[in-house]
Amino acid sequence: MQEKLKGVAVATALWVGLITLGNPAKAETFAYKPLGGIITMDVVKANGYTGGGTWLCKSLKECYVKILQAEERGALQYCQTITIKRDGNIVWHRDYNSPYWVQIQGLKGHDRAWR
To answer: What is the pTM of this model?
Structure first.
């Protein structure tokens, strides 16, 4: 009889310990939320799928500097759009197919090399 009581006491202590010390699962991507929010940069290439994607940036400035560097390398010709978002909300967007950017390039939209 005492053996059964010891077994029940040990099992109960284990369950109580697991319930008390167990951490609930969380669906967090980051261990902490950055002070400036989560900043991403979405790039759509001229052909619509090759080489584009989403980049995670430390700050808005870092993303914008990357865009300026890409424009120096010819992003006007090989990108359709670039969008910077903070916590999923658009904070900056550039459409290289808009009439303004097409005029800067000196090209008509259908004359682009990648189309």
So the answer is: 0.59
